[in-house]
Amino acid sequence: MVINFLKTLTGGYLGWNIGANDAANVIGPHVGSGLLSYRFCITILVIFTFLGGVWGGQQMVDDVGAVLPAEGAFEEAAEWDLVNIAVLVTLAAGIAVNIATYLGIPTSTSQGSIGAFFGLSIAMGLRSAGWDGFLELPQWEIFGRMVSSWIIIPFLAGFLGFCIQKWGSRFFNHLVRNEKIFDMSIILLLVGSGIYGAYQLGATHAGIAVAPFYRAGIFQSWWGIDARAWAAGFGGLAIALGGLTYAKNVIYSVGTKITALDPFSAFSAVVAMSITLNFFGRMGVPVSTSQAVVGAVAGVGITRGTRAVSFSKVRDIAIGWVATPVFPALISGIIYSIVVHIF
User: Fold this and answer.
1) 79: pLDDT confidence band, cut at 50, 70 and 90?
2) What is the mean pLDDT of residues 40-62?
3) SS3 label, residue 86
4) Nearest-5° Cα angle at 323, 319 to 240
5) Dihedral of the CA atoms 119, 123, 129, 131 (nearest 10)?
6) Which of the pair, 1 or 83, is modelled with greater confidence?
7) Which of 139-148, 223-232, 297-306 comes out lowest in average pLDDT?
8) Lowest-confidence range among 73-77, 116-120, 300-304?
9) Which has more pLDDT, 245 or 285?
10) Is the dihedral of CA 36, 38, 42, 45 positive or negative?
11) Which of 288, 282, 227, 215 is nearest to 66 (CA)?
12) CA 120/CA 103 separation, integer angstroms
């Protein structure tokens, strides 16, 4: 029991990396606008990411778990029970995200996790039934739906960011003429969008860190609280701690290096990202906050002309998106193959 609980720390490690990388997607634009302090934005992030994990992340615990191989697939490797598989996939994804965070690249943590799950499925299928297993074991339909969302997300968020910035700013400037009321209204908009974005981060990503362990039965009902709630709360807490302790580098990368952001632009970007997350989250698809916010920030920047956007920075980030699911897929697949061969 104690050993299995300690193994969940790899899920905590993945959640910590999610917070360290994806915190930038929620508060990077706010910090880049210069109107709210880094410390204030981090405080909002920590509180509402945890609450989002506890209250909104429970369904995603089940949805992400559906990507894992079926339990019968483990019969070919008796030494590898569900808990050990959970350790492998969360560790592989956590390493990939940790490297990206160290380099200051806002990568897709959901892509890293799903890539690790999928790489493991492929390795298990090849080992158990050769190429027939490769074709049957990975749940291609679910994976295909997620890949499709990865392609759509930045464009949808960019379109929303463009629309909110272009027409929302005109409406707001026309509506509020008093300078003091204008400044206070902008602050309230930024705080509200930060709360909304942080909540959505916890709700859509807590399950990514803990779904394998919930599937393995590590989390149990306790004190009248459902096991899914404990799992989602653990994931939300890990994400909040990651944002608190290791997110500063990526926050400034998102907030200042893609395009210059004024306060209303920051509001437009975060709201566009949050709406996109909410839409796909209700469909049960673990989405990428990195893809959403980069698309949203670029869409906001395009309202001032294409020269206002650093497309070279967007290109570098896009390259990281491609590498993110591939690297943990290789790690999980190779480690599984080596260890099972040895034992």
Assistant:
1) very low
2) 88
3) helix
4) 95
5) 60
6) 83
7) 139-148
8) 73-77
9) 245
10) positive
11) 215
12) 26
Is the Cα dihedral 239, 292, 317, 60 positive or negative? Answer: positive
Place of tokens 């690790």: 116
**What is residue 221's DSSP assignment?**
-
Residue 303 CA from chain centroid, whole number = 27
Kindly report the number of other CB atoms within 10 A of residue 336's CB atom.
Answer: 24
- 160-196 burial code (b ≥16 CB/10 A, e <16): bbbebbeeebeeeeeeeeeeeebeebbeebbbebbbb
Is residue 75's pLDDT more than 50? Answer: no
The owner of tokens 């004024």 is 262
Beta bridge partners of 222: 225
> Could you tell me the residue ranges of all domains in the chain?
2-342
Q: Which of 103-117, 224-238, 271-285 has the highest mean pLDDT?
A: 224-238
165 contacts 300 by C-beta, under 8 angstroms: yes
Q: Judge contact between 23 and 206, C-beta under 8 A.
A: no
131 has pLDDT over 60: no
Are 157 and 296 in contact by the 8 Å Cβ rule? The answer is yes
Burial code (b: 16+ CB inside 10 Å, e: under 16) for 213-229 equals bbbbebbeeeeeeebbb
Residue closest to 27 by CA, chosen among 222, 289, 229, 223: 289
pLDDT, residue 258, reads 59
Section 151-174 average pLDDT: 85
- The amino acid that residue 343 corresponds to is F
Output the CA angle 320-325-331, nearest 5 degrees: 115
Which strand (E) or helix (H) includes residue 210? helix 179-215
pLDDT band at 326 (very low <50, low <70, confident <90, very high): confident
Fill in the DSSP letter of residue 60. Answer: H
Among 120, 108, 85, residue whose Cα is nearest residue 331: 120
DSSP string, 147-168: HHHHHHHHHHHHHHHHHIIIII
> DSSP per residue over 258-315, as a string?
SS---HHHHHHHHHHHHHHHHHHHHTT----HHHHHHHHHHHHHHTT-GGGS-HHHHH
> Within 13 A of 81's CA, how many CA atoms are on the CB side?
7
